[in-house]
């Protein structure tokens, strides 16, 4: 595993995602309670940045058509999306968030 610093924990809003680029991947970071999740920042339905959507009930919503993705699994929880997004391991180190984009948690290959 190759974790890289993505941001400070304080930079991730409570009800929104934060867009970061790690290596060549655009990643959306989101919080749910004390947990932080990293997903590919690209809706599988319409190729729109998920980081521009709202985070609620451990999901992130695509702002364009309303698809929701589970933060833990990357699976869509509502239509029109039917394919999952890649999810990445996250480590909290002090006040910093580290993400490993060389490994996916759900086996989905990032675009």
TrEMBL record:
InterPro entries per record: Rieske_2Fe-2S, Rieske_2Fe-2S_sf
Keyword Metal-binding: yes
One Pfam family in the UniProt entry: Rieske
Keywords from the named record: 2Fe-2S, Iron, Iron-sulfur, Metal-binding
Residue span, Rieske domain: 4-99
Domain of life (superkingdom): Bacteria
Protein name in UniProt: Non-heme iron oxygenase ferredoxin subunit
């Amino acid at each position: 595993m190759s974790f890289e610093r993505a941001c400070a924990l304080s930079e991730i809003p409570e009800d929104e995602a934060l867009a970061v680029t790690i290596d060549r991947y655009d990643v959306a970071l989101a919080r749910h309670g004390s947990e932080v999740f990293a997903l590919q920042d690209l809706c599988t339905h319409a190729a729109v940045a998920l980081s521009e959507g709202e985070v609620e009930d451990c999901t992130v919503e695509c702002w364009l058509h309303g698809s929701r993705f589970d933060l833990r699994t990357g699976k869509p929880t509502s239509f029109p999306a039917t394919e999952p997004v890649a999810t990445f391991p996250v480590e909290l180190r002090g006040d910093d968030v580290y993400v490993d984009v060389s490994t996916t948690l759900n086996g989905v290959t990032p675009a």
